[in-house]
Specification:
The model is unreliable at 1-41, 79-94, 231-237 and 464-468 (pLDDT under 50). This protein is an alpha+beta fold. It is built from eight helices and 29 strands. It has five domains: 2-33; 43-128, no CATH class; 145-158 and 386-462, conserved putative lor/sdh protein from methanococcus maripaludis s2 fold; 163-173 and 303-381, Beta Barrel (Elongation Factor Tu (Ef-tu), domain 3); 183-294, no CATH class. It has helices at residues 2-28, 85-90, 142-147, 212-224, 241-249, 254-263, 446-462, 466-474; strands at 46-50, 58-59, 72-75, 98-102, 110-111, 124-127, 138-139, 152-154, 156-158, 162-172, 177-181, 186-191, 199-200, 205-210, 270-273, 278-283, 290-291, 296-301, 305-313, 325-330, 338-350, 355-363, 374-381, 388-392, 397-398, 403-410, 413-425, 428-433, 440-442. Helix 4 runs antiparallel to helix 5 (241-249) and helix 4 (212-224) crosses helix 6 (254-263). Strand 21 and strand 22 (355-363) form a beta hairpin. The two termini are 48 Å apart. The radius of gyration is 49 Å and the shape is rod-shaped.
Length: 475
């Protein structure tokens, strides 16, 4: 009898269990059947409860949806990332542990469970391992690195050439100018060079002049040159050195002095020779004019070489020194730049323009370059200096008070590092301290990674007790 009763109870219990299972499956569907918790499985901590229909809604405590269905529990070892389809496909349940969720807009607001912000955006999960390490680096998922187009470049040595631009003007070479003057009074009887701009050769006659002082000195030399033993008016021959020196003092050419001494010829006028070859840029005499000793008669310039005087801004002056290379483009010949070098930096600054004068010497074949022509100058600062350690300008994050670069350490990990920088040149910056050769620095998407780094550094202040919050929420 006891055995019969036991069998009846067993059959009844099995029937009710099967009926209940069919009723639950019919209402909730096979994909939402809750697992039967037995033994150690019943003690697994529940992180949160999610919507039974798959909608992006979560709850910290058990609740029902509008249709009366219970929210489904999500256990600690079943959590996966729901921030993107690719992450959901790649992360297996229990493979990575979520520490907390951070605000998608970068605010210092975290949550131990999934939630949405005021605009309906999902909070972003922060996985275990992203916040660990040396504390100085930030880890970015590899798929995000690819999506944002992060690029890096090895730190190396290179010659930094920084162009400094200025404007300039063509000037005569002061060392190639000659003034023609007389050292005695006289009268101009004829002009052989009678126009400004006329070219002359050294030794060619410029004008014919009569000078009483030169005539007297010639007579004295002629008398002193009478052969020894002969007398003139009872007087012995006098020394010829005095008269010859007087003629030299008057600027009389040696050829005329020798002619007077040896031949006794006493011409009344003298053809004054050009002292140098060049171009007459200034003429101040006319035929028949009386000239006095010291008057400037001609100014002759050798135009085979000219100066370009550049006006360099005071802020750029420290980088320019003698031997600095320069490219000079004259506005009259814009397609024919001329290469030169700085020969002198003038010791003064113009108070009106705050610019300094810098001299460049250039050849002038064919005398094409004219005085006062305008020129555009580009100084190649640093072209002759030794290579230095440098990083691209795009790699530098400049806050105004300090400069930072992001060092790529591999596997999506980046280290913000403060550096000390020097001069610029051709899209690069000199590194004085903070980096070594062959390290990789980020050159694109630097601000995105820097924002991520700053955000995580700020979140550390607000998430010190995040594990305790999660334990409390799971109770």
């Amino acid at each position: 009898m006891t055995t019969v009763r036991f069998l009846l109870v067993l059959v009844l219990g099995v029937g009710l269990g099967i009926a209940g299972e069919y009723w639950y499956a019919d209402r909730w569907g096979p994909s939402h059947q809750p697992a039967i918790q037995t033994g150690a499985a019943a003690e697994r901590p529940i992180l949160y409860y999610r919507d039974p229909g798959g909608a992006p809604y979560w709850s910290e405590a058990p609740k029902k949806d509008p249709q009366g269905r219970d929210y489904l529990p999500v256990y600690d070892d079943e959590e996966i990332s729901f921030d993107s389809p690719s992450a959901r496909a790649q992360a297996a349940p229990g493979e990575r542990k979520i520490l907390y969720y951070r605000n998608p807009m970068g605010l210092a607001d975290t949550s131990p469970v999934p939630k949405k912000d005021s605009m309906g955006m999902n909070y972003i999960p922060v996985y275990e391992g992203d916040e660990t390490g040396d504390g100085n680096s930030v880890k970015v998922s590899l798929d995000r690195v690819q999506r944002t187009g992060v690029r890096s470049e090895a730190v190396g040595k290179r010659t930094l050439v920084q162009p400094v631009r200025a404007v300039g003007t063509v000037k005569y070479d002061e060392r190639r100018q000659t003034v023609v003057t007389m050292r005695s009074d006289g009268y101009i009887e004829d002009l052989f060079v009678n126009a400004t701009g006329q070219s002359v050769r050294a030794g060619e006659p410029l004008f014919r002049v009569y000078s009483r002082d030169i005539q007297v000195a010639q007579i004295d030399l002629s008398i002193a040159s009478i052969p020894q033993g002969r007398t003139t008016g009872g007087l012995e021959q006098r020394s010829i050195e005095g008269p010859m020196q007087r003629l030299r003092n008057f600027g009389v050419p040696e050829s005329r002095i020798e002619e007077v001494r040896t031949k006794g010829i006493l011409p009344r006028t003298l053809d004054w020779p050009a002292p140098v070859s060049g171009t007459v840029i200034d003429k101040r005499i006319v035929n028949g004019q009386r000239v006095q000793a010291g008057d400037e008669l001609y100014r002759i310039v050798d135009l085979t070489q000219i100066w370009v005087i550049a006006d360099v801004a005071e802020a750029d002056l420290a980088s320019i020194k003698p031997e600095t290379r320069a490219s000079v483009t004259f506005r009259a010949y814009p397609a024919e730049p001329v290469e030169g070098a700085v020969t002198f930096v003038y010791p003064d600054v113009k108070a009106e323009t705050r610019t300094a004068r810098v001299r460049i010497e250039l050849p002038n074949p064919g005398e094409r370059l004219k005085a006062e022509m305008y020129a555009d100058i580009v100084f190649q600062v640093g072209a002759d200096e030794a290579p230095v350690l440098a990083v691209p300008n795009n790699a530098v994050i400049d806050s105004g008070t300090q400069q930072t670069v992001l060092v790529a350490r591999g596997s999506g990990r980046f280290e913000p590092r403060t550096v000390k920088l020097g001069r610029r040149g051709e899209g690069y910056r000199e590194v004085l301290d903070g980096l070594t050769a062959d390290e990789e620095v980020v050159t694109t998407a630097t601000f995105l990674i820097d924002a991520e780094s700053n955000l995580r550094a700020a979140l550390k202040t607000f998430t010190q007790d995040a594990p305790a919050d999660r334990q409390e929420a799971s109770r």
